[in-house]
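Figure S4 source data
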Amino acid sequence: MRWKRTITVADVHAEGEPGRVVVGGVMPPPGDTILEQMHYMRDHDDWLRKFLLNEPRGAGIASANVIYPPKHPDAQAGYVIMESVEYPPMSGSNTICTATALIELGILPMEGREQTFTLEAPAGLIAVTARRMDDGALEIEFTNQPAFVIALDHPLEIEGVGTIPVDVSYGGMFYAIADAKALGFAIQADEAKDLVAMGMKITRATIEQVEAKHPTQPAFEGVSISQLAMPLEDTSQGKKSRNVCIVQPGRIDRCPCGTGTCARMAVLHKRGQLAVGETFENWSIIDTRFRTSIVEETEVGGVPAIIPRVAGRGWLAGMIQYGHDPSDPFPEGYRLDD
């Protein structure tokens, strides 16, 4: 074995969505904040993302996270999120995967059945509560940075479809949210290929037709994910819905999507359909759920916003060591659109 580097990775999933977590073999990049470190990786050292997420080591359905020492004094750990085509400022499923790895591997020891700590994401500080449930599963609840609406019912011209209304909202990434039922979907597994095709059409159209920019973080801009959501239901336990998020370059987020759920909550609140403190369950295409609520109203750069809270379960599925042999012709992997 002639590995030049050895990368130790925890394989984790959050309600079905895989998120690798790098726990060894990587030195922190330059930067005074986790956001600056993310920008350095994106602009100057993108090797790790390609190495882990491209074939032959990676796959189109995976994301990855790398844990670094925090830069903010109030945080116990920092993490940079890496997805197939981008470095998002925040991701709910990846936050759950990272927190799960930190707890289950003893990096942040858990005392008793509940532990609170703070993570530093590129988007800012994320307050986390980890709970050991009665069946032994680990539930991760996090309080996100503010979510807000850019536009409601924006008329979007879709190739081969016509004009449809979409809501454009930020929950850690920018989302274009369309009515799944109006488009003929029920968000079922046998619709997966058609959902991806429609979602990518919506994403491409929104990128071309809608300007989306964070009011205080101008580097956070552009819609990169579409969401097809079923109508909101009232139940005895609170509000409920079902959704699917289509991630570039064209795949379904297996879980209910944490930042997508936050973006949807901002829309529901703006429409008067979800109040502060009211419970909202968002369900995925594989029948897993996130339990959520709005903590409070706030504002970001003069834009009305909410502080969302999201809870979902994470599981450590395995430990893997990846190596780079200097004779390997694919040190950064490759990708085929098949």
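Figure S5 source data
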Amino acid sequence: MLKDKRIVDLTRVLTPGAERFKLDIRTFFVDELQPDFHRPEGEWYVLQEWQISSHIGTHIESPYHHIKEGPDVSELSIEKLIGEAVVLDFRHKRAGQAIKLKELQPHSGDIRAGDMVLIRTGFDREYGKPDYDRPYLALESLQWLVERGITCVGIDASGIERYKAEEQPGHLLLFSHGIPVIEELTNLDRLKRKRVLLIALPLPIRTADSCPIRAVAIEEA
């Protein structure tokens, strides 16, 4: 099935204790947590307990992140998170600059109804640096994408809004239309095609506003 295809992992590798958001892992021998389980003496047979932020690394945000009555991560449609994605290149934008509508409109022929849209800024290189700024999507740009019938917006940076803005109108706009947001993608520079098959699936956790994902792109070799 994957003959003549390239698979590109778009996911951040996470390291406990080295991330901006919480990721703590405690490891126990299985019989420490489950005394009814038998562990042969000296055998490495472990269970772990994790404390993890819902927004760590490459993650997807559901409408529930900003809308109390909105669907949570468990209610996101799988069909909309496995499908065609178009990669739009905005590496010319600098930190703090908006990606404006007039800059998106030339890509109108590339964006189809039902697409996931991936914004490439190149700012995944800043991942892990404290307090880093990045480009963002102007509200009019997001409105235009909504009108094009897209199903998801992803970006290779820490967010789609102006950094540290007092309000999040872009999130509210997308979420009010049932459109989730993927942040902290990486390796978009490894893609050789503008259109790819994207798989971006969270764990179906009820009441979760967001969840780390494994995002994978499949393209023609």
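The helical segments are 30-33, 101-104, 139-147, 169-176. The longest helix spans residues 139-147.
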